[in-house]
Structure formats: C-alpha cells, structure tokens
Design a protein that fits this description.
single chain, alpha/beta, Rossmann fold, Pantoate--beta-alanine Ligase, Chain: A,domain 2, 2 domains, six-stranded parallel β-sheet, three-stranded antiparallel β-sheet
C-alpha cells in the first residue's frame, strides 16, 4: 500500500496507473475508519483496478461552533484497516496542501444544498462540494464511492459531477449498521453508554415507520408523526428534523407514491446523528416473498 502526502506525487501515481489502462476508484473520508468505511473500501476494490482512500478532516465544512478541533482521529489504525481492506494507496494531505494561502474559490450546488442538514449547518455543503472536487482533481479517479447514510451529501456530489461534466461515476453504498440497527458513524464515539443505548430510538423509529408504510400508511405527516413519537419517548434525544423527501430532488412530499426517503437528524449528548431509510413498497414485498 502506497502512502502519499504530496498532491503532485498523488496525481502522478494515478496518472501513471491510468496510462497503463487501470481504472482508479476514490473513497473520500475524514478518517477514524469503521466497518461502514470497510464496506466502502470493499466496493472500491471490486469496482476498479486501483483503489485510493483519502483521509482529510475538511475545516470548511464545519461551522464555527462544531467539532472540527475535536473530530476523532486514529491515523495508525486507519492505515491498518486500509491495508487489510486491500487499498492500493492512501492520500493524507496537510491543510496547506489543500487550502494554500490566498485560497478563495468554492463550489456551490444550489438547490440540493438547501434544507435538511443545511439549515443547522450553513455552508456545510459548499465545503463538501469544494473538497470533493479538489480531491477529484488531485486523484483523478474514474469512480468514487460514498455512503448513503449521508444521503444529502451523496446527492450533492452526484449533482456536481453531472453539472460540471466530470467523467466520474459516483457509487452509492447502503448504510452499514450496528447489530441493533444504529448507523455506523465516526461520531458514535461521542456517545457514552447511556447515550449509546438511547440512540437505539432511531432504528426503532425506522422500524415503526416501515411497519406503518407496509400497512398502507402513505401520508407523510402520519409517518413523520410515528417516527417523532418514538424518538421523543427517549429523554436524551432531541430531534433536529424529520422529513420525507423525493429520492432525487429532496423536495418534501405529502404522500409517498413509488419511493421516498425519510431523513432525520437527532442530537444525543455531543453527537449529532443523521440517518435515513428508503420507503418503497416493492422493497417490503420482496422481503415478504423471502419469508
């Protein structure tokens, strides 16, 4: 496994690999890797000849009172996990490599960067789009892998790629969950034992919403009320938002016909937990047929 810290050397490596006919895939991360990242790396390995993992905690996607300075880090363990996953190269730039003195250019995906997480984190998706485009330019992948837990982020990146005519395929990977259903996240490390137990209210809310949807409750307000009731029953949980949205535009919808995404953000202690679930009748029918 190769380790790069210099952007020119990183770019030279993938340029040489592509010149030999290799397909390059990038997995952008902020590090502190877990089993969810391992799944992203597995998809990257299977979909290309050369897989690159980037680790960079991006300051411009954090607000002034957020956890940039305290975001969990364990580079030594990250490198071990990347090597075990078969990653070919890891790119770990320092801040000046990415944002040199005088940096003043940003990328904004207008409509998809509104609402949901953007309301609580103004400027967040501008920071995401900017760093992702910079990584695309440095690594020059033909494919990039993102987790669908951060669904709004996934759509922002996909829209940027399409709008700017980037020759990159964006692959979305379903959320990897703990045994009790909680979505794996680096920020889960902020939860103490009582808070971790409280966080179960999120997957339990999804279970109840899916059960209601399976029983032909398609009214968004009723489905949101079901999720809200379950989460509000947990004293340590504070709902930031719950919305049911179109799977492509993220426009809020009143009635689910076909497919939709229920997206939410819940604060428990210091942790801000985001998650989503797909509401699609045929998914439940397919599961029922397997029983």
């Amino acid at each position: 496994m190769r380790l790069f810290k210099d952007r020119i050397e990183m770019h030279r490596y993938t340029k040489e690999m592509r010149a030999m006919g290799a397909i390059v895939t990038l997995v952008p991360t902020m590090g502190y890797l877990h089993a969810g990242h391992r799944e992203l790396m597995s998809v990257a390995r299977k979909s290309a000849d050369i897989s690159v993992l980037s680790i960079f905690v991006n300051p411009i996607q954090f607000g002034p009172h957020e956890d940039f300075k305290t975001y969990p880090k364990n580079i030594e363990n990250d490198l071990k996990l990347a090597q075990a996953a078969g990653i070919d190269a890891v790119y770990i730039p320092d801040l000046t490599q990415i944002y040199p003195k005088g940096f003043q250019t940003y990328v904004m995906v207008e409509e998809l960067s509104k609402g949901l997480c953007a309301d609580a984190r103004p400027g967040h998706f501008r920071g995401v789009a900017t760093i992702v485009l910079k990584l695309f330019n440095i690594v020059a992948p033909q494919k990039a892998v993102f987790g669908l837990k951060d669904y709004q982020q996934y759509l922002v990146v996909r829209r940027m790629v399409e709008d700017l005519n980037l020759d990159i395929e964006v692959l979305g990977v379903e959320t990897v969950r703990e045994s009790d259903g909680l979505a794996m996240s680096s920020r889960n490390s902020y939860l103490d034992p009582l808070e971790r137990k409280a966080a179960k209210c999120i997957p339990r809310a999804f279970d109840e919403v899916n059960a209601a949807f399976f029983n032909d409750v398609h009214d968004s307000a009723a489905l949101i009320a079901t999720a809200k009731k379950k989460i509000e029953a947990e004293p340590l949980a504070m709902i930031e938002y719950i919305s049911i949205c179109d799977t492509e535009t993220l426009a809020e919808i009143d009635y689910v016909e076909g497919a939709a995404r229920l997206l939410l953000a819940v604060r428990i202690g210091k942790a801000r937990l985001i998650d989503n679930c797909l509401l699609e009748k045929k998914t439940w029918v397919a599961q029922l047929d397997k029983l």
